[in-house]
User: Which sequence fits this backbone?
């Protein structure tokens, strides 16, 4: 077992890759009641075109199938896995993102038993035609719930403007039509391909003894047979570097409008420290431009264009990368114009060293706060690892970001002529 | 669990609770200011924290406050209002990194403390009121916040259910106030209200983290300087929650252009935190709708495939139980029947000992997890400040253990359905 210490943070991380390829990470946390574990596959909503395990031809699967699979794994021959976890005093859950599907539990007792339950249910699929049909009703209501949610609609509206082909633009849960095409056999095909231990990562954080946990996981895995891992071939259509559409307007049953603007990375091929540096640079720049302490925020607030829902975010993985800025507003058109011209103004000027230092501190403090949260650590660590980065490098990289790093990222990312788009949500009945 | 060391003392008008723990990499401050929820004051009260955190004498603009917080390693400060039963809380929360994890020796706790107390105790004034420009901005901000509830249909349905169910009770008032009352609030009248708040509200300050009790004492004494109270003024006596006497089932249906209908039900539990049956009520809720092993989840979602979510939750201080579910509009009768059947089953004791034990295990787990978070600890401890009933953190789990099936059935029998609220969607079914 490998051991890595982060002295300033007072954390020690234990790691081992098992023979079947599974990556296991353990972060002991004294003082916490709770142990939290995530079992994650590098498989999300964007992986809809691939060569199934043991085959030669590429297969295109229905939108939303990764999420559908997440729902169905909770059922096994004996019934519902939620029941088993709650009998063991744990609460379990799962989520599907663009690039990952994660299964998780938290518990304050019977950690070993719950950990076995987690690994075993994820590694034992059980789908029947009948239960697949039944799930369509439930997921159908999940889709409709999001259809009525203006924040969600605005967000996916924006991504659909940014991307012409990349499946990141598709709703993670799919559509009522696409989930209707999901079958038991398709679920097994996706499962066999993406749930091989070699494509998965197990993270355990909490009041645990690392040696005991590692032994448990090893013994559990040694008792199971898996085929030889193959490199998974995924296919994506070539995506132009520029945005697909410059703007979009949605009319919804709302009282307050929304304005979201986005910037698209031209070459989203970074991984490892290069991606970490890029991502942190964009985050620092967004904070400098639009953080609550910026003069832009103050101006927009005083002009009555934004309220405290105003926020920004950057998402970047292999194959896509974009930032989103916006929030509720009674004047969506005006706000999008103002944001655009503020970005143009900012990019023309020099970066103020004092502001950079202040934002750097803010980001470091935010990271420390996040380390109070086992959920944050497990989820983010996994995301970072799948992109060949290390979560615990965040502080050193933040500390080493230079004005040149920021200037490079700024010049490439915040281009309003070709990389900018907006999606506005307006109340029905407005012009 | 790691034992938490709690120190309580009174400094001027403030009751201070210091919770020492080495578990966290941050220190957390929570100030709760409590007064009864009233029609007369609720909009002013919602506006107050927004105005206060927009500028103080020492930090005269929002931007100045935010820049100072950034410099304190991204300390976060929020001011907000909340309902706890028929109490209307103004709460300020500040979380700041513990400097021992940083290559820096700025006394972060002290600086953060000064910032929060300045916002609360030393407001920015212009003559005999707040600043007009700030008032104007924050009225607009609050108005938009009130209006945007309409856009989030789950919150909207909750708000409407509360309104309908508690029309003649203070609890029916919306926590952010009434947008129509905003125009009538002037910078002078709001400042007058502020003075009343600092002179009359019950004040509780919680400090959680690896901190020194004497240091906290000194910080409170030097910085949280609020008007002294006369010796005979006591903490606001526990106010008996208003309760409707005869509960008659009420059905409210509203229509909107939506794909999904929202079915929300409001029950009277006739049990609050002050009652011995409080823990039996928690178990009732766990069996009925609180978790993914509960009757609502199993029967509405898993068996009938009618919904993605179907859950219930308890309001601890008013004595309410709320059920919520998102369904196809055409399934209204079907879903309502299943929910009613689950309530009947609970009243008939139609659940196994094993399920009771399962629910205890999950509740205990949830409680211990809540205690892992600084704000969770504060939340649990603050229940004790709302009435005469005092429960130590260590008492919660034994109390959960003690509950029997008979207790749960007795609780179930007390629960009465008050209002069914259905937000009908007119765009559903079309694409099935």
Assistant:
């Amino acid at each position: 077992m490998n051991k890595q210490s982060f002295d300033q943070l007072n954390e020690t991380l234990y790691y081992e890759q098992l023979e079947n390829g599974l990556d296991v990470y353990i972060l002991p946390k004294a003082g916490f009641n709770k142990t939290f574990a995530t079992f994650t596959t590098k498989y999300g909503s964007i992986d809809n075109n691939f060569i199934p395990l043991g085959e030669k031809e590429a297969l295109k699967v229905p939108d939303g199938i990764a999420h559908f699979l997440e729902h169905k794994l909770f059922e096994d021959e004996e019934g519902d896995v939620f029941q088993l976890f709650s009998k063991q005093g744990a609460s379990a859950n799962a989520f599907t993102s663009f690039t990952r599907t994660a299964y998780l539990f938290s518990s304050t007792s019977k950690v070993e038993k719950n950990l076995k339950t987690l690994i075993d249910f994820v590694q034992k699929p059980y789908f029947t035609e009948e239960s697949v049909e039944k799930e369509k009703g439930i997921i159908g209501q999940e889709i409709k719930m999001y259809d009525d949610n203006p924040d969600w609609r605005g967000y996916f509206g924006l991504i659909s403007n940014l991307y012409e082909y990349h499946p990141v633009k598709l709703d993670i849960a799919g559509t009522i039509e696409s989930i209707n095409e999901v079958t038991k056999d398709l679920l097994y095909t996706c499962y066999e391909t993406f749930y091989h231990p070699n494509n998965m990562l197990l993270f355990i954080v909490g009041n645990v003894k690392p040696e005991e946990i590692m032994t448990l996981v090893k013994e559990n895995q040694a008792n199971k047979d898996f085929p030889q891992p193959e490199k998974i071939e995924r296919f994506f259509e070539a995506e132009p570097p520029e945005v697909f559409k410059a703007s979009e307007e949605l009319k919804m049953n709302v009282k307050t409008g929304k304005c979201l603007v986005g910037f698209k990375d031209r070459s989203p091929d970074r991984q490892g420290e290069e991606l970490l540096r890029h991502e942190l640079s964009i985050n620092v720049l967004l904070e400098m431009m639009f953080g609550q302490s910026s003069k832009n925020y103050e101006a927009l607030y005083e002009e009555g264009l934004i309220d405290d829902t105003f926020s920004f975010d950057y998402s970047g993985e292999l194959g896509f990368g974009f930032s989103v800025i916006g929030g509720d507003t009674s004047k969506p058109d005006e706000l999008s114009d103002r944001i655009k011209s503020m970005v143009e103004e900012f990019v023309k000027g020099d970066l103020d060293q004092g502001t950079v230092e202040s934002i750097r501190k803010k980001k470091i403090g935010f990271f420390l706060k996040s380390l109070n949260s086992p959920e944050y650590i497990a989820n983010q660590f996994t995301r970072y690892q799948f992109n060949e980065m290390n979560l615990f490098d965040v502080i050193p990289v933040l500390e080493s970001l230079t004005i040149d790093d920021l200037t490079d990222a700024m010049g490439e990312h915040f281009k309003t002529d070709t990389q900018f788009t907006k999606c506005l949500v307006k109340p029905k009945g407005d012009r | 669990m790691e034992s938490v060391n709690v120190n309580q003392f009174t400094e001027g008008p403030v009751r201070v609770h210091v919770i020492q723990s080495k578990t966290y990499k941050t220190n957390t401050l929570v100030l709760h200011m409590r007064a009864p929820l009233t029609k007369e004051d609720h909009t002013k009260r919602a506006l107050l924290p927004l105005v206060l955190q927009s500028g103080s004498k020492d930090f005269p603009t929002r931007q100045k406050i935010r820049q100072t917080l950034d410099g304190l390693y991204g300390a976060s400060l929020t001011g907000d209002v909340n309902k706890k039963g028929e109490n209307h809380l103004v709460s300020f929360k500040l979380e700041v990194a513990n400097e021992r994890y940083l290559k820096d020796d700025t006394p972060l706790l002290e600086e953060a403390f000064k910032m929060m107390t300045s916002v609360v105790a030393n407001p920015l004034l212009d003559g005999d009121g707040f600043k007009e420009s700030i008032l104007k901005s924050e009225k607009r901000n609050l108005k938009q916040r009130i209006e945007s509830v309409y856009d989030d249909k789950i919150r909207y349905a909750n708000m409407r259910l509360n309104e309908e169910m508690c029309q003649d009770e203070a609890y029916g008032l919306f926590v952010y106030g009434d947008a129509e009352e905003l125009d009538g609030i002037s910078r002078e009248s709001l400042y007058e209200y502020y003075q009343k708040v600092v002179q009359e509200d019950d004040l509780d300050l919680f400090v959680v983290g690896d901190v020194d009790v004497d240091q906290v004492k000194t910080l409170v004494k030097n910085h949280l300087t609020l008007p002294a109270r006369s010796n005979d003024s006591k903490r606001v006596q526990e106010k008996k929650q208003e309760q409707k006497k005869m509960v008659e089932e009420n059905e409210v249906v509203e229509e909107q252009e939506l794909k999904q209908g929202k079915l929300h039900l409001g029950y009277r539990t006739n049990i609050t935190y002050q009652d011995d049956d409080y823990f039996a009520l928690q178990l009732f809720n766990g069996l009925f709708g609180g978790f993914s092993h509960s009757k609502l989840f199993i029967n509405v979602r898993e068996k009938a495939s009618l919904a993605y979510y179907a859950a219930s939750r308890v309001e601890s201080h008013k004595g309410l139980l709320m059920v919520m579910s998102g369904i196809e509009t055409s399934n209204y009768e079907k879903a309502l029947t299943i929910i009613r059947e689950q309530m009947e089953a609970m009243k008939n004791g139609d659940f196994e000992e094993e399920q009771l034990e399962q629910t205890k295990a999950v509740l205990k787990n949830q409680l211990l997890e809540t205690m892992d978070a600084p704000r969770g600890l504060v939340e649990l401890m603050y229940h004790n400040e709302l009435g005469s009933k005092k429960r130590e953190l260590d008492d919660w789990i034994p109390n959960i253990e003690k509950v029997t099936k008979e207790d749960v059935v007795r609780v179930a029998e007390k629960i009465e359905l008050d209002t069914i609220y259905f937000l009908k969607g007119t765009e559903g079914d079309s694409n099935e």
